[in-house]
Amino acid sequence: MAKSSGGYTCTECGWQTSKWVGRCGECQQWGTVAEQARAGASLARTTRAAAPAAGREARPITELQGDAVRHRQTGIGELDRVLGGGVVPGAAILFSGEPGVGKSTLLLDAAARAASTGARVLYASGEESTGQIRMRAERTGAMHDTLYLASETDLATVLGHIETVDPALVIVDSVQTMASDQVDGGAGGPAQVREVAAALIRTAKERGTPVILVGHVTKDGSVAGPRLLEHLVDVVCHFEGDRHTSLRFLRTLKNRYGPTDEVGCFEMTDRGISEVPDPSGLFLSRPGAPVSGTCATVAMEGRRALPVEVQALVAKSATPNPRRVTSGVDQSRVAMILAVLERRFGARLHDQDVYVSTVGGVKLAEPAADLAIALAVLSAIADHPLPHDLAAFGEISLAGEVRPVASGAQRSSEAARLGYVRVVDASVETLDRARRKAGF
């Protein structure tokens, strides 16, 4: 799209216009169009070539040493898994997550583990005082002499602390609370966030010191501030979890040094956050007697296979419009499965209330859980419990077919490891056998 030579620019994407508008014509963001400080003249300037500084000349890739940029472990196995093996020197890492999910607690633990090796770590917070951070450190056992705390909101002062302490790791909590006096606007504005992030990332690259930035999120779960922030950093991690459960998941949305399909599992306790290397038993219930309406499946969280139990309850509806209540599964997906069961397999559900839920608060978004949901519903209708050692996974189509899903061998292997000897994978005859067994 051609850009006009006006005096207003979008702080998100750089789109320009000759007059102020409330909504950007390029990225469609509201309230991001601001007046340029220097209109016209700065756009007409031509950047001249300059000689590179000594020691920074372009060199053949085969002559560069790769040992200096190896991953360095943080001491937290689940965090190292998500980062691709650890923290890379000079890397800029962005941590995002909802308020109260445990971002600061996890990073304080990572800072303490790095300080326990004798390395200097700087934890700069613009949201808490040093006394408040110390209280949390005493509660979680993160007290070390080489862990330095600073409560600052000025970017220049934070950079001064980095020069003075000379840390091996820097944590800034959070980037939206920092501000520079060289940029107009308050802390958290697009211009301030862009300047603060650029300065800290430049410091990380020049000194070879990894910098971890904590970022706030908006109502829709995306990182607050300009989209450019996610492009500037090397790694973007999202920390998520339900406040009503202790389980937390750490996912990578971007990683220049490793895979982006790894998931780390943590548990929030009174002593802080502890990693969960094997979370298989968290999403399963083992009642003494078999219960109808339950079926186990194996979900893939990144490269990790997690057995999850799906529970269903079917009851006679007392209203003209039967209820469809779900927890942990996609409601529209469940509605589709119920329609397939009623139309293709003769299950009577039009006058029944159906409740479908997962155990442990885990969320199933992949279609591989379709078969387990269908078997749980059929088991609830017939009031016939499925065997304890049965696990099922597969995608159900509108035609009633069960389609194969990805990572079938890994799912079957994980189910067998936990004692599920009857693994029902994707096959066309699966629901037919379940229908006949249920008496339809």
UniProtKB/TrEMBL annotation:
The keyword Ribonucleoprotein does not apply. Residues 353-440 are annotated as: Lon-protease-like. Keywords: ATP-binding, DNA damage, DNA repair, DNA-binding, Hydrolase, Metal-binding, Nucleotide-binding, Stress response, Zinc, Zinc-finger. Pfam families: AAA_25 (PF13481), Lon_C (PF05362), Zn_ribbon_LapB (PF18073). The keyword Metal-binding applies. ATP binds at residues 97-104. A motif (RadA KNRFG motif) lies at residues 254-258. Residues 68-217 form the RecA family profile domain. Plays a role in repairing double-strand DNA breaks, probably involving stabilizing or processing branched DNA or blocked replication forks. DNA-dependent ATPase involved in processing of recombination intermediates, plays a role in repairing DNA breaks. Stimulates the branch migration of RecA-mediated strand transfer reactions, allowing the 3' invading strand to extend heteroduplex DNA faster. Binds ssDNA in the presence of ADP but not other nucleotides, has ATPase activity that is stimulated by ssDNA and various branched DNA structures, but inhibited by SSB. Does not have RecA's homology-searching function. Belongs to the RecA family. RadA subfamily. The middle region has homology to RecA with ATPase motifs including the RadA KNRFG motif, while the C-terminus is homologous to Lon protease. This is DNA repair protein RadA. It comes from Leucobacter alluvii. The gene is radA.
